[in-house]
Specification:
With 295 residues, the protein is an all-alpha fold. Helix content is 68%, strand content 3%. The chain has one domain. Helix 1 packs parallel to helix 6 and helix 2 runs parallel beside helix 4.
């Protein structure tokens, strides 16, 4: 039973990550490889505050969201001057820089040794210590993330994001301040990713830089592409599929090092297959390949 709850918790965490990236990439058309950086910074902010300041959970998650929101603005600013492949490279650079800081600032982040002993969260005097408790907490944050995203994409703000995705020049000629919309959507997406990072840190009770690499960013992008970009339920479907699928490898009896490599092959194969033959993913409305929307 605890194994099933563990899988559901991971699905919830990756749902938050993929929904937040979908807001940036699926609805606004800005492909970013920096999402694992926001995820990691959120985790480290909460872990460091819990370990060094003994501050409460709600304070830690609020601080993580605010800081990652500011970092999101920093990443979003280059999108005002560069586009497409050049912007992807810029987000890749930010991801690499963030990983290097987490890995080399040993006196502060623990470096490769990470941060062990992260305490269990306490909310309104109630300590969350069981798998069921974490699942409920992650579920609440998932619902909150999806509700906020739904309100955004159905609002005039969301319609402008879609206009930027389809034709940025047209959106600008219509009098929309495209620059502010781009930066703001990165602020929102990064803040949401921080919530997933905080939950991961508290749930695992140990974090190190290897959990927040470029490969993690690519995995989150894979969830969005496979599930379907520009759709509310696409990232959820992608998270379920790509989190559950590798677990079947455990039941085949393969050695762990073989299973890990095979998992990467499966991710890469699915990503290539969907980009070639179904660029809209399972439930998507936007194809990264052609930029067409579903009629």
């Amino acid at each position: 039973m605890e194994y099933l709850l563990h899988i559901l918790i991971l699905i919830g965490i990756y749902t938050i990550l993929s929904v937040s990236l979908n807001l940036i990439a699926g609805y606004t058309g800005l492909i970013s490889i920096a999402h694992a950086a926001f995820y990691g910074v959120g985790a480290y902010v909460a872990a460091l505050m819990a370990l060094k300041l003994n501050s409460p959970f709600l304070t830690n998650i609020a601080s993580a969201v605010v800081l990652c929101g500011l970092l999101g603005a920093l990443v979003g600013i280059p999108s005002l001057r560069i586009r497409d492949d050049y912007f992807v490279i810029a987000t890749f650079a930010f991801q690499v820089i963030t990983f290097s800081i987490l890995n080399n600032w040993v006196s502060f982040t623990g470096g490769p040794m990470g941060l062990p002993g992260i305490p269990q969260p306490t909310i309104l005097g109630l300590k969350v210590s069981s798998h069921l408790g974490f699942l409920l907490l992650v579920g609440v944050l998932c619902i909150l993330t999806m509700w906020i995203t739904s309100r955004i994409v159905r609002s005039p703000f969301g319609r402008v994001l879609k206009a930027i995705r389809e034709d940025e020049v047209f959106a600008q000629s219509a009098g929309k301040n495209v620059a502010s919309y781009k930066v703001l959507v990165f602020v929102i997406g990064a803040g949401m990713a921080a919530m997933a990072g905080v939950m991961y840190a508290y749930y695992i009770s140990f974090i190190d830089p290897t959990s927040f690499t470029v490969m993690e960013s690519i995995f989150i992008i894979s969830i969005v592409i496979v599930g379907g970009a520009g759709s509310m339920w696409g990232p959820v479907a992608g998270a379920i599929l790509l989190v559950v699928l590798p677990e079947f490898l455990r039941f085949i009896g393969l050695p762990s090092f073989v299973a890990a490599n095979l998992r990467q092959i499966i991710y890469g194969g699915l990503l290539v297959a969907f980009m070639m033959w179904r660029p809209k993913g399972l439930l998507g409305e936007y194809a990264f390949r052609s930029g067409e929307t579903r009629k």
